[in-house]
Write a structure and sequence with these properties.
This protein is of the alpha+beta class and 234 residues long. It has 2 domains: 17-100, Winged helix-like DNA-binding domain superfamily/Winged helix DNA-binding domain (Arc Repressor Mutant, subunit A, Orthogonal Bundle); 115-219, 2-Layer Sandwich (Nonspecific Lipid-transfer Protein, Chain A). Helices cover 41% and strands 18% of the residues. The protein has 13 helices and 7 strands. A 5-stranded mixed beta sheet has the order 5-4-3-6-7. A hairpin with a 2-residue loop joins strand 3 and strand 4. Helix 8 crosses helix 9. The radius of gyration is 20 Å and the shape is globular. 20% of the residues are buried. Mean pLDDT is 91; it is low at 1-12.
């Protein structure tokens, strides 16, 4: 009867479940509520406070964010913890199992960016930018180069380590970086994915590039977008 215990849940928790044993269906049971996946996306690079999550998710209300955090916590996807003094504030972070969901975001991102309706001018968070770099890197273009690229995104600093055609990204410090991009995530994305020249963005005061400029320019060429899908003819 162990299976019955595992699958038994409160009516409130399961009232919108698919009641389908398929793993994909259960994934939607856990993550299918509006905003749930985006909350997880924002926690991919470390814990965040409630206010930080709201700031990075335009359009979400405090009430909905609270509900999604509670639901993801109940599902075992994230946990709440209190930072030690002097911070002494509550943060949310993904569990080890929650972090295993990154390939889901990568697959969805690679697939959806081919949509003719994708609008790259919409708001773009720091987590979105960094996750997109881990998703869209073309390993063949990065072979033979080792570099540390810094990203100053508001009050946060991240370092991308390129080696052996792979990229690893984590919070870090400017020390030891070969080049640094400073600006809003959407502007940096415009340079990487939109083909906008670094010099033009700098002249407009939207972007700052420090360090090896040749390397910085080369870095922006490592993430080619796939061709758009063809729409059915009517």
């Amino acid at each position: 009867m162990r299976l019955e215990k595992i699958t038994e849940g409160s009516a409130a928790q399961r009232r919108r479940w698919y009641e389908d044993a398929c793993g994909a269906a259960h994934a939607l049971d856990l993550l299918g509520e509006r905003w749930s996946l985006l909350v997880m996306r924002e926690l991919m690079f470390g814990p965040k406070r409630f206010g930080d999550l709201r700031a990075s998710l335009p359009g979400i209300s405090a009430n909905i964010l609270t509900q999604r955090l509670e639901g993801l916590e109940a599902a075992g996807v994230l946990v709440r913890r209190k930072l030690p003094p002097p911070a002494s504030t509550q943060v949310y972070e993904l569990t080890e199992w929650g972090l295993e969901s990154e390939p889901i975001f990568q697959a969805l991102g690679r697939w959806a960016v081919r949509s003719p309706h994708h609008d790259p001018s919409l708001p773009f968070s720091a987590a979105s930018l960094l996750l997109s770099l881990r998703t869209m890197l073309d390993p063949s273009r990065a072979v033979g180069i080792e570099a540390r690229i810094g990203f100053r995104l508001g009050a946060e600093f991240f370092v991308a380590q390129l080696a052996e055609g792979r990229i690893e990204i984590a919070a870090g410090t400017p020390e030891g970086t070969d080049a640094i991009f400073s600006g809003e995530p959407r502007v940096i994305a415009a340079a990487i994915y939109g083909g906008q020249a670094l010099e033009s963005l700098e002249a407009a005061g939207a972007l700052t590039v420090e360090g090896d400029r040749v390397l910085a320019r080369w870095f922006t060429s490592l993430f080619p977008l796939p061709p758009k899908a063809e729409m059915p003819k009517r």
